[in-house]
Amino acid sequence: MEFFDVINTRHSIRAYQSTPIEPEKLEQILQAINRAPSAGNRQAYEVYLVEDASRKQAFVQAAGGQEFLAQAPVVLVFCANPALNRERYAQRGETLYTIQDATIACTFAMLAATALGLSSVWVGAFNEDAVHALIGEPAGQRPVAMLPIGYAAGEPRLRDRRPLDDIIHKG
Fold first, then answer.
1. What is the pLDDT of residues 69-106, one digit of tens each?
2. In the chain, pLDDT over 90 holds for what percent of residues?
3. What is the CATH number of the domain that holds 111?
4. Is residue 5 part of a domain?
5. I need a labelling partner for 27 at 20 to 30 A (CA). Which of 35, 91, 93, 110 fits?
6. Structural domain harbouring 51
């Protein structure tokens, strides 16, 4: 898919078919994550791939009842790993760059999924402690986003976007 087609095709999808994701497509998404830019190429993030139905159902509870997390065949949990930036970037690296790195990686996954005919939705509303426990309580890591991925069950609801004049400020 052409890059700008990917951008225009991507929508937040909150209903998924039970159809599994083909392993080669999942591998391409994971490779895209690994190609995401990061501060100093430190890749100060970790990604947890969850396919287990009971764990996905637990994510639903941790995310305030967002049922689509259990519907999607795969949920990726993106965590900031401050320890990977501590030595080079001190506090700013720990508190900001790691969050940026994890969220850029999540964006790459989202766009790769779209390019492969899959759908996703960024999930940021969740109980961080509960999600941390569900992924095995990795020391020092902070969950910052979850990304359910699968084949859409229905058409996206199109939403208006802010006009560029409201967003872009020339200075």
1. 999 999 999 999 999 999 899 999 999 999 999 999 99
2. 93
3. 3.40.109.10
4. no
5. 93
6. 16-155
